[in-house]
Amino acid sequence: MVSSVVILAVSLQIFAALAEEDLGDVKIEVTFKPKRCIFLSREGYFLRYHYNGTYPDGTKFDSSHETDETVDFVLGRGEVIKGMETGLRGMCAGERRKITVPPHLAYGDKREELLEGSIPPGSTLVFEVELIEVLDPMDDLPKNLFWWVGETPTNSFGDSDVNRDKKISKEEFANYCHMMADSDKGVFLPGRREQDLIDDMFSFQDRNRDGFISFHEFAGPKIHEKHDEL
Ligand SMILES: *[C@@H]1O[C@H](CO)[C@@H](O)[C@H](O)[C@H]1NC(C)=O
Ligand SMILES: [Ca+2]
Ligand SMILES: [Ca+2]
Fold first, then answer.
1. Which of 89, 156, 170, 187 lies 20 to 30 angstroms, CA to CA, from 43?
2. How far is CA 41 from CA 46, 96, 179, 193, 219, in A?
3. Which of 97-121 are b and which e, b meaning 16 or more Cβ less than 10 Å from the residue's Cβ?
4. Which residues contact 152 (CB under 8 A, 6 or more apart)?
5. Residue 198 alpha carbon to ligand 3 centre in Å
6. Residue (of 88, 127, 96) closest to 34 by Cα position
7. Ligand 1: residues within 6 Å at CB?
8. Catalytic annotation present for 218
């Protein structure tokens, strides 16, 4: 008799606790989608992302920007909280999302210790996320950062150098790459942010690090324009 009363009391308590808890699903809001968004994250893929973590009232609890270290993990292996396993699926590099995770898909009723401070039990967490990179680890094809579709242009240097100063600025270079991709004449390596690919291609060519790609430094198709040589 005594024990059944105890059991009833305990189960009522559990019931009350469950009723209070938000057992809803993860909420995913896409806040930025890149123009080209075709290579999507899926189970078994390697992902790299930045995040700002807040409570629903906007108070910050953590951010990857503080240490400038991305979260690097493989999707689908329980390396991150359940809510993020769901929230980061079907996402392309450069995409941004706001992912709201109810407690039972985050740390539940446990206190989570952070580098600084801790997340109280029963917290709903809001992550603003930017996916930096998504890779299929089984794919070991050579990784060109950019390639031509159809005919290779004959004079990319001249076409990029819009202001005709015989050197290519970062802006000219970025505009040209985007123009080629927009007109389906070129393709960026999928799985990385286009701005990162442009940065890498630019610094690879700007060997003397003066912030411009000279005619000699330029690695793409180019024609020396003789009348300019005087
Ligand atoms: C985090 O917040 C900072 C400052 O507002 C912002 O610059 C950064 O883009 C945010 N990061 C993400 C992943 O949303
Ligand atoms: Ca120029
Ligand atoms: Ca240079």
1. 187
2. 8, 13, 26, 13, 32
3. bbbbbbbbbbbeeeebeeeeeebee
4. 221
5. 15
6. 96
7. 50-52, 65, 128-130
8. no
Query: Domains along the chain?
Result: 21-135 (3.10.50.40), 146-225 (1.10.238.10)
**Which position has the token pair 């206190």?**
111
Low-confidence ranges of the chain (pLDDT < 50): 19, 230
Distance 52 CA to ligand 1 centre (A): 6
The three-class DSSP label of residue 96 is: strand
Predicted model pTM: 0.85
81 is catalytic: yes
**Which bound ligand lies closest to the C-alpha atom of 95?**
1
Predicted local confidence at residue 106, as pLDDT: 97
Q: What digits encode the pLDDT tens for the residues 147-205?
A: 999 999 999 999 999 999 999 999 999 999 999 999 999 999 999 999 999 999 999 99
pLDDT of residue 224: 87
Q: Which of 39, 49, 62, 73 is catalytic?
A: 62
